[in-house]
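Entry:
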Amino acid sequence: MLTLFVLALSGFGAGVLNAVAGGGTFLSFPALVWAGVPPIMANATATFAAMPGYIGSAWAYRDHISGNARADLKRILAVTVVGGFLGAVLLLITPQDLFSGVVPWLLLLATLAFALGPIVVRQLSRSGKSVTGPVALGLLLAVCIYGGYFNGGLGIMLLAAFGLIGMTDLHQMNGLKNLVSAVLSVVSVLTYTAAGLIDWPSLFIVGLSCALGGYVGALCAKRIRRVGLLRAFIVTVGVAMTVLFFLQNSG
């Protein structure tokens, strides 16, 4: 019963956080590992649980997404599909012990991205500097490979990449981020499922509670005025989870 409660609570919390400010993986992934799900399978299951939220967010931003040029959007989605598939395959061929050793560093990277991402995006928007052509697509491909391999901090990394590419409209950037995250998660989840990496009993609990949390979070998001405090809380959770996984590996 304790395991069911922790999984349901973490899923609900992850749904709320993803709807309001992102960072839900910092709750769902460690909870799945604590429940005894192997790290690679926990990563795949947490991504699956977050997928409906990504799809719903992309639909909510459909008007802003349509503002992108059709040709640019096709290129971005093509890179997303390729990157998501490559990242998922990379996860499949990673030995369990190696992935367990990499997890603390991935959590650290995701925490830093979440903490510093908004500052980086603002600075990029003010500077007006951007990368274009193959370099821009290569940057996006690298972020998508990361997202297919490990979902934590993906949204912030995508926003930073869009800032480097030269986008300045935050609503348009958010809409595109949600679309890319949705497509990326679908590609990754299909690959994970085909490889038998989904822990279905845990997914049922975490997924349902995550969907409920996403709905509640969407309602709360309209009333929350001090998002900075929430972001600080998420960063604190990320730091705590990172330290715990480092300690676990050292032990």
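The mean pLDDT is 84.
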